[in-house]
Amino acid sequence: MQNLTKMIFSVFTLGLMMMSISAKAVRPAGELASASGATINNSTAHSGTTIFSNSRVKTAANGSAMINLGLLGRVELGPNTDLTLQFSRGVLGGTLSSGKIAISTLSGVQVNLLTPDGSVSSASPQAARFVVDLARGKTNVVANRGAAKLLSGGRVSVIGVVNAGQVQGISRNAVASAANNTTSKQDATMSNLLRAVSNQAVAEALANRASNQLGGLYYTSITCKDFFDNPKCVKRSPTR
Amino acid sequence: MLLNFKLNNFSRKLFSLGGISLLAGLAIWWTIHIFVISVISDARTPIDQPTLLAAAAYFPHSSQVQGRLAARLIEAGVADNETAEGNAELAEQAALRATALGQNNYENYLLLTAIKEQRGDLAGAVAAMNKALQLAPNYLDVHWRAANLFLRADQLNSAQKEFQAALALDISRAPAAFDLLWEATDGDWQALKQTAQGNATIQIAAAEYLLAKSRVTEATQIFAQVERTARAQAPQTPAFLVALIAANQVGAAHNFWQEITQPADAATINLIWNGSFEELQSKTLQQFAWNFTPSKFANFGASDEWAKSGRYALKIAFAGQDTTRLQGNIRQLIAVQAGHKYHFEGYALTTDLVSSEPVQIAIIRMTTGAVITTSNPVKNAGNNWQPLALEFTAPAPDTGVFIEIQRLPKFSFDEPTRGNVWFDDFTLRALN
User: Fold this and answer.
1) Between the CA of residue B350 and those of A221, B165, B294, B327, B410, what are the distances in Å?
2) Between chains, do B180 and A71 touch, taking CB under 8 Å as contact?
3) Nearest-CA distance from A56 to chain B in Å?
4) Which ipTM score applies to this complex?
5) What is the DSSP code string of A198-214?
6) B236-285: per-residue pLDDT in tens?
7) pTM, whole model, 2 decimals?
8) Nearest to A127 among B78, B118, B144 (CB)
9) What is the pLDDT of residue A209?
10) Residues B251 and B322: beta-carbon distance below 8 Å
């Protein structure tokens, strides 16, 4: 009886082990579909090379690279680009330090890309294609498909929604950018919005609401800190 | 051979003309057909997707056109079309047609591999890749793509086999291959070892890679497996030894160096290489040989004018310049063990030496360049060999020290140094 119990226990344990082995998830990875004048983690990039999350892909002055990420989408790099690519199930992004990239995603994939000026993320779960270009101290975003949400760096963020066919930018000097745009119609709308901003969660919620209600409008806004430091802004305690 | 056709009536003439016209027409049609297909299937020709789709429908039996369509649809993927899945399905159909029509073209199977993987069918992708490997067993690109695909499909053994085949064709891809294996196996050095197994060039590359990752033990283990002759001849060996020294693994580097440069039966307890100066340079690797840097203050080299033993001694002929400085010009790296005590002996002979500061042997720390100790100074002893000696304890954490011949000025100016000094029969032994 004792032997039988042992045997059952052994079979059960073995079964569990087999299940855990078969359930071992294949690490998400992409493939460098094509490359010219590019490096991956400082090694020369060759077509067909596997790209793991956190890989650093750089292109030279005349370089380019295209990375296929299967069911997540695709990333294309232009010349002089430095991108640390990060991805996992349903999320595609990373850190763009310089240059220009185009991110294409299938529906249900969330984009989350950091730039020196802030972040670019998808504003809706639909299939998207954004071109993100770091030029002249500014992050420019073109949404060819889907809608992109722009958040500036800092504690509370710049909010912007770029819908398909639109262009938007985050300046590294958000205050100057806002000050230059204080007379615009859109800015007045955003000033009202900003008064209600106290944290990023609220900011994002507002961005989503703005996206839903005012899709197609062009926004520029600033952080609360920047807002309060800006002499053209009225000081006010952040409220919900 | 002569063929005679008699076209002596109208019907024959008409029939011949018709036949020739038909043949000419067929030839023209075939030429145009080939030309159009070659233009359409040339990747350099910019053709939009609808035109390619139309061309594929018009030339359903052309493997090249079907292949080009598949490639275009894969390229378009999620970028051009919101219905990416529709694109993928069309691409797979085109790739399957291309492989069916051009069964001996490995590129069609690579296309099929790409589209299968894009659609999440890894097993299908692997099967197509295996077919491509069968068709092009000597192509670097196919082995590289196969290795990467197998890695993504979690088939490590197959990936290692293909990486080895790729690296055998192009060793410059070793860092990239090892990076991928390292990442895929969470830093398991055995994966690198297995990939390199049996190929000296790849083994040395793997050892270099591990050394760069500060995995010294593993690096030396892989390097030690390389056959002695292959190690001696490999162009990467000097760089590997330098990297070992830089990693403060002088003992390991010295063992490899000795094994490569010395005869297998050359057992010696003298830690100084060629202390009798019979030869100044090693025939192969120089890391632990005498190292000479030219100086404006003195000339030096092997001389047979005087010798304590053997045929040669090291001669230093001072140039008669003021403020003479000999520092780091004549030195040898010695492997030592931190905390161990060492005893040095050597001999010197002078002719007409005039120096206001001592000429002596110095032991220098490898890591800091600080002087550990110096020998008694060389004296003017009238053409007699005089003994030089010193003892030192190797300081931690150094695994190497330099032995060098020094003459340092004490002040910013001293009187010119003249004359000659010969050195011979240097020995260094561990005392404990």
Assistant:
1) 85, 61, 21, 19, 21
2) no
3) 12
4) 0.73
5) -SHHHHHHHHHHHHHHH
6) 889 899 999 998 999 999 999 988 887 666 666 789 999 999 887 777 78
7) 0.71
8) B78
9) 37
10) no
